[in-house]
Structures are given as structure tokens and as C-alpha cells.
Write a structure and sequence with these properties.
CATH superfamily: Cyclic phosphodiesterase
Order of helices and strands: EHEEHEEHEEEE
Number of strands: 9
CATH class: Alpha Beta
CATH topology: Cyclic Phosphodiesterase, Chain: A
Strand content: 35-45%
Structural class: alpha+beta
Largest sheet: 5 strands, antiparallel
Helix content: 10-25%
Length: 187
Amino acid sequence: MSEPRRRLFFALWPEPATRAALAGIAGAVQLGRARRVRPDNLHLTLVFVGPLEAAAARACAAAAARVEGQAFELEIGTLGHFARARVAWLGPVAEPPALGALVAALRTQLAAADLPFDPKPFRAHVTIGREVRQLAGVPALSSVRWPVSAFALVESVSGADGVRYQVRGRWPLRPGGRDETARPPVR
């Protein structure tokens, strides 16, 4: 009998105040009959890994612990729509170089550990709705400042009330790179 697989991805996981601000903006966007993303599931995916067995999930966390990155700030203030995927999203006004460097470092460490990940080009966004055929009108958005000081390994867990995302590990980002004393994941 095979062990259950965990559907994993790396993400920026907002702190409560940032999450509330993102949910406020998302709630103001008219999405028609689309399925809104629950406020507690709002995040920005860095790298989608996919379903992994327990040993590979542990290797994934070990790869994350080798990532060096700098803290940065995002300004979320754009609205967009991926027509083919039928997804509405909020995105950054500009992508700071530290964000792209973090994604590249994660992919490098995953590849070095021979772990799978989705190789599609990175596009920073926070999904706010699914099954969105089109955006009716683009409202003027206020922006949210998101101080990013860590990244997380997140599991997608299906349940009777839908999908919930659960943080399985968190790694801090430090100005100037790595802080050896703070690398283990927080569970």
C-alpha cells in the first residue's frame, strides 16, 4: 500500500493584517458567479511542487532550508485575469528583484535535490477568484504594502468544506542573506 501524497507548494504567506487588507481589496472586486478564494487561503505562490510522498516532502523542506534570500516589500495594487485559467488575481505594482531571486533560489535547490516543480515562467499574483469568465469592470484599487520576511511550504488539503491551505514549514528572509540560527521550519 502506498503512502498518501501531499500536494505542496512554496508561497509568500501574509501576516494577519496584510491578509485582511488583501481580503478587503479582493472583496471589492466584482467577480459575478465566480468562486472567490477564501480569505484564509490568500497567498502568493512562488513555486508549485505538486503531490509528494513523505520522504520527498521532507527533502523539499531540506531544500528550502538551503535557500538564501533577502526580505523585501511588495506593493499589491493591480488587478488582472488569466483568461485560459479563468482566474482573477491581484498583483504587485512592480516585482522587486529579491522576489525573482527567491523564486530562482528555490528552483535551484529543488532541482539540485532532484525534486519536481512546475517550470512555467513565474508571474507574481494572488488568486482571488476562480471560474472567472471576464472582469466586468476594473475598479480603482487601493494598494496594500506587504512586508515579506519569510516564505512558507504549504499543503493543499481537501475537505468537506473545500480546499484549505496549511503551512507546513516557514523560513525567514534576512537582509544580506542567510541567518544560520533561524533556518529550521516552524511547525
